Amino acid sequence: MPPLTNRLLRRLSLIIACAVPVAPALLRAQAEVRPGSQVRVLAPSAADSLIVARVVAIDSAGLLLAPPAPSAARTVRLEQIERIEVLRRGGRKTLAGALIGTVAGAAAGYFITTAYVSNSCDYICGAAEAGGAILGGMAGMVAGAKFGSGFRAADRWEPAAVPRR
Question: What is the pTM of this model?
């Protein structure tokens, strides 16, 4: 393989290896308590256990919470809250599928092109291998995104800041 193509593939693999682990952290937004949010509140002076409810309203004194069971809404004062978590619904796995598909498709395209390109060719062979990797990566990205969009991540509780007083 020509030195230029070899260096490009090494740089590309380094960029992908560095970007994949940090991508979820960069895409995640800070959990915020707002009306309509499903929350889990630890307020020992207001209840014996965790309060799981939907936030109806927020004011300077506290949170008005509506429990899932048909019962009266209750207010929890902000100073009583020791910990609050917001339910984050799991999204689709489209991005993860696209990233995995890109890497798998690029590898497959590179190896398939390498297998079919003659070993006795000149510099153009490196371009054919790089082109195979790029085309394979694009096809893998589309297939991975389509496959990943069919899956949903699990719901999770994320810590949030107690609303300002």
Answer: 0.49
